[in-house]
């Protein structure tokens, strides 16, 4: 029978207690000396080099890259070769199933189903790091014919000027704007027309096409269908739609005010009562699948900092992206008489907004 003990000399060399001859031990507990005298040749990197913030950031970048793909696929076959993008496509199809987007049916006579395609996009954070691989299945809208596949397509969209006015107004009132993102927002809109689409490339399960129940990205009537669904929900919840800006909704309750601004599937809101704001977020989460993103910090390319003295709006990330695009990232900054940043001061703009 083989003994599990170590020789006395080996145990002493590794810092373990000396054993009596013939004594059998089932376990050797390493001492602190083993860790302190770790052989240098087993250490990774230069042991004389100090750890800096930049090196820690590099390690964080590579560890994060293990969970997301850093490239955007050329086509479906390219995406199917990477497990991260396969997971992203499965996530999109699971959204379809949860929202009951389509039914697998036999096509009617003389039916020409609308084609579908995958669109792959890496979502970046404020620091430019890829934080999310988004695979979206869209309909090929050019296959649609007006009067057959759709009727009306118009849907109101908030203008950038309206967003700036809202920022100035909320700064004057001391409101903190929050942001929510509705996941696959267009899949919540009901379409009135009868439409058929082909199954997603790479995931065909049968020879039949799908009959749509909900709006699909790429359909010309999809934005209108989503806006109609969201508007109906807000009006039933007691909101009043703006008379000029149809994407602005107001709610008054017991002397408190809640403001909601819509930009397709991005929604920003704020109010004079924390309870009213929290209640609205809960209502939205019960009705739609969404992500509560917290305090508004990044919207339509604008970086927003909300403080006690006002709201500061800048485009530092956009500036870095432009410099990187034209290989000017190493250029030295120069001061100019006119600043490109915009500060919205509560005291200065309060009277003008009122």
From TrEMBL:
Family annotation (Pfam families): RVT_2
Compositionally biased intervals (Polar residues): 1-12, 333-343
Domain Reverse transcriptase Ty1/copia-type, first and last residues per copy: 99-339
Taxonomic superkingdom: Eukaryota
InterPro entries (UniProt xref): DNA/RNA_pol_sf, RVT_2
Region (Disordered): 1-38, 333-354
Protein name: Reverse transcriptase Ty1/copia-type domain-containing protein
